[in-house]
Known about the structure:
The chain is an alpha+beta fold and 95 residues long. The chain has one domain: DnaA, N-terminal domain (GMP Synthetase, Chain A, domain 3), CATH 3.30.300. It has four helices and three strands; from the N terminus they run H-H-E-E-H-H-E. It has helices spanning 8-14, 19-37, 62-70, 72-83; strands spanning 45-51, 54-59, 90-94. It has a three-stranded mixed β-sheet. The chain is elongated, with a radius of gyration of 17 Å.
Amino acid sequence: MREGFHRLSDIFNTDPGLANIRKSLKQSDVVNDFEKIFPELKKVAEAVKVDKKCICLRVENSAWRSELRLREMQIIKKINNYYKEERIKYVRFVP
């Protein structure tokens, strides 16, 4: 490329002014890809949002909520492995 020209992807990935947009996109990726990562949970759990590395899940009933609470560390690990970086630290269950 010519001197003075930069790729948009390079600017997007490195510009400190766009850090909040990059963070928001990463969070929405987790919500959008939840069914891809956990196809077996498609009927019982839905990712609602991600905020401050905490994913909020809406679960069908209290029995499934208890089951998923027991699997919380597995859920976190599987999401982070999928993206090859730490995007989730906590799981929260919402009504």
